[in-house]
Amino acid sequence: MTDITLTSVASGYNLSVINDNFDEIESIINTEVLHTTGGNNIMSQQLDMNSNAIINLRSPSLSTEPVRLQELQDAVLGIIDDAVGDRFLAFGTISLAIAADLEVGRKIAVYGYASTGDMPISHYVVVAVSTGTNDGVFYHNMDNGNQLKLIHNGIIDVRCGGDITGEFGALASKVLQAIKNNTEISAATCFINNATTLTATTPINATGLSSKAVTIMGASVKHINNSMIKVEHTGVGIDCTGSRNIKFSNISLQCSDVIIGTPTVGKTPKQGILLARTNPGASIDAGYHVFDNVIIDGHCSVASLYNYAAEVLDFRSTFITNRYVGNVAALYVTNDNNGAAASSFVTIATGAQSNSTLNFNGGQIWYQGSGGNGKAVLLRGASNMRWRDTFLQCAGGHSVVYIDGDQQCNDITFDGIREEEAPTNSIYYRGTVTGLSVSNYQSRAPASSGYFLFGDTSSILYNPVIRGITSTNANNGILMRDVHFPDIFFVGQVAVAAGSTCERGRISGTPLLITTAEACSLHELSTAQTCNLYQTLTGSVADTATTDINLPNHYPGKCLFAYMIQSNANSGHMSVGFFRTNAAGGAGNTLTLFGQSENNVAVTVPAVNTLRITNNTGGAAAFYVRISVVAG
């Protein structure tokens, strides 16, 4: 501005000079400082703020306007160097980088997606247009016609695809499908880590991931809850239909808006995770999945984890719980999709498929929908399934393990299992089951009506091996009702009900209890010295009347038995002795008695395979019958 020069007032009161000076000051201020009549307010010298701030600047809208610190941080954060000396131009958000006029080859660092700091620092390089597909993850189209290409080491943070504070289902789907469609990579990790819960109100699309290995990984094991995905809709939480080689690691999935209590209507998914085929027949397009330190919990109207013929599954330290009240399961394995699972993204296969190989090591599987008809594990048409060192629980449901042999199940193994709770039965089976092997199993089936192993009417169990069963309830045993056992090996207490048959059976260890002997046939008894073949209590027999005991039909050659038949009214009234079968075997075994000692109770052989008890006690009585194999 022009220097202000005033006329001196030499002496006295010279009003004219004073007024002229004020006019000069007014003119200079108005015309060169305030520009009340127009002008450009051009400074002729530096403006010295003496360390004071200029405040209340508006957000700039023109390229010639000043920027505030916030705009500067959001736009260009500076020049940074990486570990190998590459220089990156830094931007606050991906949208600002897209809008920048950057040349091909320029490397940049972005500090946020929607706002600075909402994603980890991500690096991009500017490439020519159409280098890749504009998927919003690996490639972004720029305003100047070039593209931004994500620089990565195979680990893709899900926050590189969008605002993680929004709807998570669509964001996770976007990233996973971008991984699927990226032809430049053969394997990738989708990393999920956030301090707050991620809410998915739409299914996560992990379908079709069959051409590359994909890991869906959360935070470290110490912070698994930081990677909680809350599923709040009625579809599928994570849909893996038609996918192979997915590894889930350190992921926590909450299926419904609440864990304890009643979930909100419309916020209970059908399946937490769905594994299924799209391609029926010999071509298996689903399976080879690994679950490592995974939690699936909540209320699912079908199953927390549902597998329709996805083969070769490996579970390590995985915890699966379903709290939905109804005819549901925590883990549901089926070869024919009788649970009617459906995908929102692809067409699921139909009909019965092969369904082989599942290994579940450690962890736990719980059904906690008290009052429902649920199961912890439901198997249908399953083969080569293994559980080892796993906690199983079914609170108020149907059974801990339900084996549905209407679609034949083969080679099912439970080893080192501990039950936390069982509603009635530990293992319930129906239809045809081959090769059930159970060992070191601690059952908590209730004493009054529960059984470790319960066979449904007309079921067939081929080649089972049962050993090392313990129970917290004294009456717990194995109930076989109206079932056929062509070949069986038992170690432990066994209860066999009417209508059962067993061929080529081998019994060892603690006593076998046959509750209705005439209905049960046993063969090839081994370690017989410690095995009670038959134990029952007859009905009341009148004095001088008889009752017949029809023994099991078939023994391979000669067998030696010891028996004791005792009145329940007077323990001194009894018959003890030995009998043997003939050498021929078959249905016509002749029994030969010897070494008898009798007191008011007579035992004779009226026909093949039959012992007759005559009551000479002087009154009506029932008789305890115990028969043991001594040799044979």
Characterization of the model:
7% of the residues lie in helices and 41% in strands. By secondary structure, it is mostly beta strands. It has an eight-stranded parallel β-barrel. It has a six-stranded mixed beta sheet with strand order 1-2-3-4-6-5. A five-stranded antiparallel beta sheet has the order 38-45-40-41-42, with no helix packed on it. Helix 4 (168-181) links the parallel strand 7 (155-157) and strand 8. It is elongated, with a radius of gyration of 41 Å. The model is unreliable at 486-493 and 501-532 (pLDDT under 50).
CA-atom Rg in angstroms: 41 Å
Number of E-state strands: 45
The residue fraction in helices comes out at: under 10%
Q: Treating each run of at least 4 consecutive H or I residues as one helix, how many helices?
A: 4
Low-confidence stretches: 486-493, 501-532
End-to-end distance:
125 Å
Main β sheet profile: 8 strands, parallel, barrel
Walk me through the topology.
Blueprint: H1 15-34, H2 69-75, E1 78-81, E2 87-91, H3 94-99, E3 107-110, E4 122-127, E5 139-141, E6 147-151, E7 155-157, H4 168-181, E8 187-191, E9 198-200, E10 204-205, E11 213-217, E12 228-231, E13 236-239, E14 246-255, E15 271-276, E16 287-298, E17 303-308, E18 311-316, E19 319-322, E20 329-334, E21 356-361, E22 364-367, E23 375-380, E24 383-388, E25 391-394, E26 399-421, E27 425-443, E28 451-455, E29 460-462, E30 465-471, E31 478-480, E32 484-485, E33 489-491, E34 494-496, E35 501-502, E36 506-508, E37 512-514, E38 532-537, E39 546-550, E40 560-567, E41 574-580, E42 592-599, E43 601-604, E44 610-615, E45 623-631
Parallel strand pairs: 2-3, 7-8, 8-11, 9-12, 10-13, 11-14, 12-14, 13-15, 14-16, 15-17, 16-18, 16-19, 17-20, 18-21, 19-22, 20-23, 21-24, 22-25, 23-26, 24-26, 25-26, 26-27, 27-28, 27-29, 27-30, 28-31, 30-33, 31-34, 32-35, 33-36, 34-37
Antiparallel strand pairs: 1-2, 3-4, 4-6, 5-6, 38-45, 39-44, 40-41, 40-45, 41-42, 43-44
